[in-house]
Structure formats: C-alpha cells, structure tokens
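Two proteins, back to back. First:
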Amino acid sequence: MEQTGMCVWKEYSPGENRENAAWLWWSGGNIVVKNPDQEIRRKMWLIAQSLEAEVQGEEGEYYGRDGESIVTPAKAILPPEPSMPSDPKRPWWKFW
C-alpha cells in the first residue's frame, strides 16, 4: 500500500494490535497513529524529539519518553493587558 505521508515501522514488536508493523501518517503537520500502544507512543516520542514537537493524544493528554501520560501544569489564566494606560483623572467606569 502506498500513500503520501505514510510510513511503516517494521521493527514494531507484536503488541496490542497483534501485527508486526505500526502504520504512521504525516497529515496536516501531525503524525497520526490509530490506537497506539505504549511501545508506539515511545517511538512517537523519539520522532517528536527530532522535530522539536510533543506527543499528544486525542483527549489533549501528553506522553513522555516512556509512552506513559504525563501531567502538565495547567496554564495560568492571566487577566488581559489593558489596551490603554489608565488615566488617573478619569473614573474607571467611563469609557470615553
């Protein structure tokens, strides 16, 4: 089977999907694998390192070098920066 952006990892050991090959697709700037097990996620992490990228699942979770989900700190929610400096002579509730 040939398809642009597709590659096969032939050294994949028979894992959860009981095949001796893992199919990976390059699409829209992402490497996509259907139902990756821990061994495939480890391989994806190695590929991501060379691309300065991360391995992320469908639910937004990230994976580390061992193929296990890693906890990432929640991004801090910061208040928006004011677009104009406040005028000490103008009350805060006046917009004009």
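And the second protein:
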Amino acid sequence: MRQLLPVLASMLTLSSLDTPTMTIAATTPDLPRMLLVQKLNCNNPQTQTAINECTKLSYQNADKKLNQVYQQLLLTLERSRKQKLIAAQLAWIKFRDSNCEFERSRYEGGSIAPTIYFGCLEKTTKLRTQELQEYLKPDP
C-alpha cells in the first residue's frame, strides 16, 4: 500500500498536466519511468502553451518556405548579384529579429509573449518570401 500511494499521486499529478510537450516522470525507484505525450492540436489549441507552440510551428513552416525560395533564387543569379542578395538577406534577418523582439517587448513576462514574437516572425517571413518570389518571375 505504501508503494501504491506515490504511484497514484504521480498519476493524478501527471494526468492534470496540460502541456503539448513530452514529460518523463519517475514514479518510484522500483517501477519503470512513465512517458506521457500529448498530441498538439493546432487546429484548436486549448491552452496558451499550445497556442505558443502552434505559433512557433507555423513560423518554422514559413521559414522553411523562405529558405526554399531563397536557395532557388540564389541558383538563378550571377556571382555579384548572389553576394548582394546574401548581404541583403543577412541584413533583413537582423531587422526581422530586432523588430519582432521590439513587438514582443510590449508583453515581456506575459504568457502571450511567445505568440506575439513567433506571429511577428511568421508574418514578416511570409512577406519576405513573397518579395523573393517576385525576383524569380521572368522580366516582362
């Protein structure tokens, strides 16, 4: 019975967790570790933590698309223009990150701050992707 109480207490505590991340909990030394994974539903996030994580994933997808378009554009440019694009892209990344840091600073310490930051990164990244796609279009 003494061994069962810590296990039950751990289960109750773990069942009340509402995070989208993986949690590993050691119950008692003589029992195996429990692995709990809650699937992240970005179609209907229910907590601020889930909203933050979904916003981050959405930004990461936008960043992947940007990098694909950027690499595609680099392949079409002669050497001198490649160097100019690389310099422009590095400057743009610094601007984007600084601008989004500023936007997030209004909510510093708040649980919504990551959503504001990643939302800004996503929006700005998508705009840059559109700009780079325009360079891929043939001249009229």
